[in-house]
Amino acid sequence: MELRQLEYLVAVVEEGSFTRAAQRERVAQPAVSAQIRRLERMVGQQLLTRSSREVRLTEAGAALLPHARAALAAVRAAQHAVDEVADIVRGAVAIGTVTLHPVDVAALMADFHRDHPQVELTLLTDNSDELLVGLADGRLDLAIVSVAADVMPDGLDGVPITDEIIEAAVALDHPLRRRATVTLPELCQLPLISLPVGTGLRSRLDEACAAAGVRPRIGFEATNPQELADLARHGLGVAILPRSMARGDAGLHALRLTPTLRGRLVWAWRRDSVGPAARAFCALARRSLRSADRE
């Protein structure tokens, strides 16, 4: 077996498509198909079933997949060991971020590329749930994600970027404009304006409502917190926002939630799989946060 064949097999499985696997591996799609066919001839079994809609592992493919991943991981570990001895940082770092955060990731990437030109950097933007999945399955090396205020997901380490209270915000002519606080049961009787399921802010809201035994009435969803504020300002409901946004908009009246909701943004990475390049980027990210704290 060739490592390239195993790499293509893993890529097809993870991407669910020969075309997307080829794009990920930066080769033509026929090259991926040809290498998978050679691998199947070598093992004497069909590894994938192909249809116009999807690609699935056969029983033989499912048996081979964990060994393929282990072999590729062993090769990466061997290269990391050699590079560390030689004090060389190379390879690739895959970074993920949520849509809104205060980190200048582009500047970090530029600084890192200047110091480590042999490392390939990629950047993905998605919601926190998808980014956490990417960290768990190894597609991402580190990511800016939203997590609960008092816990890190299993298997992850990280450093905090922000830790902020979540509040409600309404238009200046809303019936709640004279209130300073609102309880979750009261809040859930009103049409809410929230980020979609999968985002950190929505997860904190859903978790708190579940703990209180109530269900939120989502009237509108938007993918950017600023859009939530805009909708609330026009009287379309109660926006769920970070406190800095709820209280920083002159067209909104902010209300404290009871009980208090908090959310954190963190740089997160897998505890057991950070290679030299990813470690170097993590160190740069940590230094940038310390510098920001001193300013």
UniProtKB/TrEMBL annotation:
Membrane-crossing segments per the record: none
Record flagged with keyword Cell cycle: no
Top-rank taxon: Bacteria
UniProt-listed InterPro entries: LysR_HTH_N (IPR000847), LysR_subst-bd (IPR005119), WH-like_DNA-bd_sf (IPR036388), WH_DNA-bd_sf (IPR036390)
Keywords annotated in UniProt: Activator, DNA-binding, Transcription, Transcription regulation
GO-annotated molecular function: DNA binding; DNA-binding transcription factor activity
The name this protein goes by in its record: Probable hydrogen peroxide-inducible genes activator
Species whose genome carries this gene: Mycolicibacterium obuense
